[in-house]
Each structure stands twice: as structure tokens, then as C-alpha cells.
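Standup notes, structure subgroup. Blocker cleared on the iron/sulfur cluster input:
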Amino acid sequence: MDYFLLYSNCVLVKGAHRATLCDLQKGAVYFIPKPLADLFLEDQAVDLVQLREKTEGDMVLFLMEIIDSLVENQLGFYTNQQEWKRFPALNKEWLFPAHISHCILDTATGRLDYFTESFVEQLSKLCCNFVQLRFFGIPPIEHLENILRLITGSQIKSVEILMPWNTAYESGCTYGKWINDYKKISSLVCWGAPSTCVVKEGARAMGYLLYTSEQINAATHCGIIDQGMFSTNITTYTESLNFNSCLNRKISIDIQGDVKNCPSMKESYGNIGDTTLVEAIGKPGFKKYWNITKDQVSICKDCEFRHVCTDCRAYLEDPGDVYSKPLKCGYDPYICEWAEWSTHPLKQKGINFYGLEKPAF
Ligand code: SF4
Ligand code: SF4
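Run returned:
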């Protein structure tokens, strides 16, 4: 066998200093040293004869040991020259049967009074299946249960809820009751809680109840890039190759009722009091961020995590450059190190621009 070939669900992503091998089926990420990544043909196969010819001394043994470990971890297999071209590569198209996939709704008061049957119909027209409700004030029980009932009877597949932790709701077991009664809740995050923990995992990987001591009391808390939020799967990978990995097919309504790409952005496409979601999407400029891929963003285009990482176009390292790296990412792909973004000297211009100097509480 003179070739090593990756399984088609395993993809190589080259960075400036190293590469990642992402197993999109198992959701795992492995690191590959640059000398081996550079030997991959069409990012799929390694010619082992060439590897031995082009590589010097102990490096051959080192690279062959890595390839053996890739085979052991079921990321690829040994084959020959005639065979490897017969294995089809992964289809890299991203197809999604919806005009809008995600909708974020923010409220400072705990109320979303526009969330009525006719609003659910608007979401239905767009085939929007995922909704995130971000409460920066405590929602009255009746009001939230009304919304959850509307969601239950709709095409919406899942809802993620963020809300302030509340002693009365805690002692009344309200959070657990919601998780049990409303099966479309994928996660309920109570922020400002006394401690941080996951209490319960519901059936079919839905219904997480999470407590966090963090204060998520404004849209400015969004946009943090963290390894714990990486998403290694075919949908994220193919979407990030073709579209923006945060804003593509997303719509939001901020605390003022303004319809936007994301609540943290300035551009408004009308107010939900006098504009429909369909009208907002049809306005010039609404889709302008949808096609900005990570391969076009400065620094990210050299990062080996770019196809498992989410993007952020609302908070930029250089606010004047729409292709600038996300402000709230502390990773440097040129030295492969993570650092705290908020204290980084090069981030201070962006931090001042967006008024993020102090926590928003
Ligand atoms: S663009 Fe940034 S702030 Fe807006 S939703 Fe995406 S990650 Fe959050
Ligand atoms: S540099 Fe940061 S934001 Fe850019 S792809 Fe890498 S981890 Fe993601």
C-alpha cells in the first residue's frame, strides 16, 4: 500500500502553523504537524513513496507514526494509487431548506408582546425552526408559558432560552417544570445564578437546564469565541465553507423591536411594530453578511479552527473593516496559542469602539 487516504467524513484544514483533522461524524478534532499537512494531495491523500523521498532522517519515522495513529483512530486507511481516486470526496455544498434558519429575540423587560400567533406565522413562512429567546429581565410565568404554548403548536423545532436566575422560580421548581412540560426547549440557561452547573439533560439530547453565575444581561455579551463552543459536524463545516457561520440565514429583533441581522449590530431593517420579517429580509443590505466566509476573514483564513469555529461580524478587531477578525477571539494561529482577548493590547481600539471596557452590569 503506497497511499494513505482520509475517510470522506474526515477533513484536513490547514492553518499557518499546523493543521486540524476534523472527524465530522464523531465530532473530534486532531492536530496534524505542518510537514505532514503539506504532503496531502487534494487535502485527502498522502503519497507514502513521496513522503519517504521528500522527508529527511527521523522525520520519516515521526510522520509514519502519526499516519499509523490516524489509521488506528479510524480517520483514514492505507490504499494504492489505482484505488484512492475511486473514493468520492465529501460533497461540500451547503443546502438548507429554509429562508431563515435561526431567529434571536431579545427583551430587556422580560416581555415579548409581539410573540403572537401572527408572529409565529411569520416565522413559519420563512421555515424558521430554531428560536433563541434572550430575556435580560425576568419573564412573568404566564407570559413565557403563552409563548411556549405557541411554539409547541408550531413548526419551530427547538427553542433556547436565556433568563435571569430568580429565587421564587427556583424554589417553585418552575425551571424543571418548563423543561418537562415543553419538549421543544433545547436549553434553558439561568444567568446570574449562585453557581455554574448543568442540572439535567432531557431526553434525546434536549432539555438542558444550565445555571451560570455569569451576568448575561445585554446583547454585548454575545460574540465570544471559545474552544468549548466549537462545532465539528458536516453542517457547520459545509456552511462555513460557503457562508458566514454566524449570520447566514439569521434574523433578530433587538430590545427596541428593531429587526436586524443580529441584536448587537447597528443596521435596522424596520421595527417589528410596523414591518414583517419577510419585508425586512427583502430590504437592500439585509443579506450582505451572509456570504462572508471564514476563508475571507483576516487572520481566521490562516486558522486551523476556521471550519469548526463560529464567526462574529458584530464585534470586530478593526471596526472599520468588515473582513476583520472577531474581536472576542484570543487565538493566534501563527503561534497556536490562546490568550485573554479582553486585555490584549491590540484589541483595545475595538473594545473602546464598542464600549466594552466595563462589564455591562
Ligand atoms: S454576529 Fe456576533 S454578536 Fe451577533 S449573533 Fe453572531 S456572534 Fe452574536
Ligand atoms: S482566529 Fe479565532 S475566530 Fe478566527 S477561526 Fe481561529 S479561533 Fe475562530
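Discussed briefly. The mean pLDDT is 94.
Next: hand off to the docking folks.
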